[in-house]
Design goal:
about 140 residues; single chain; alpha/beta
Length: about 140
């Protein structure tokens, strides 16, 4: 089995069938944590997945926190501006700035301070290019 485990959901797929794809990941492929892609993150799907005993990571937590919601991962635009600011005030515009990832809505009952520090370390290493997301 390849890692990370994923399923491609056809864009034409009926939203009401997305739970079946989650079932394949959770039951057939024994996934314990799942990232819900923003375009399919409906309240119904998040609620359903939250009842299946897996951990959920997403980019926008719904108004009602689903069971198993570990954290929200999203671009940290304030940090990106802080990174770019010295070059901008020096008149060096037109640059591409990679926005660091920010963590929010962290459930300390699931992701303790020590684990959160490890997550932040891995994110920092990814952004620094010291961890590859594919084979060399």
């Amino acid at each position: 089995m390849e890692y990370p485990t994923f399923l491609a959901i056809p864009t034409s797929e009926d939203v009401s069938l997305h739970g079946g794809y989650a079932n394949v990941l959770i039951n057939d492929r024994d996934v314990d944590s799942i990232y819900i892609y923003p375009s399919i993150a409906t309240d119904d799907l998040l609620t359903y997945v939250g009842t299946q005993g897996v951990f959920i990571i997403g980019t926008s937590m719904p108004a009602t926190r689903p069971g198993g919601w570990v954290m929200t991962v999203s671009p940290d635009t304030v940090k990106a501006i802080e990174i770019a600011w010295p070059q901008l005030i020096a008149g060096q515009g037109g640059q591409n700035v990679q926005s660091p990832l920010g963590l929010a809505d962290v459930d300390p009952g699931i992701l303790t301070d020590g684990k959160l520090a490890q997550v932040q370390f891995v994110l920092d290493e990814l952004l620094a290019g010291r961890i590859l997301t594919s084979n060399p």
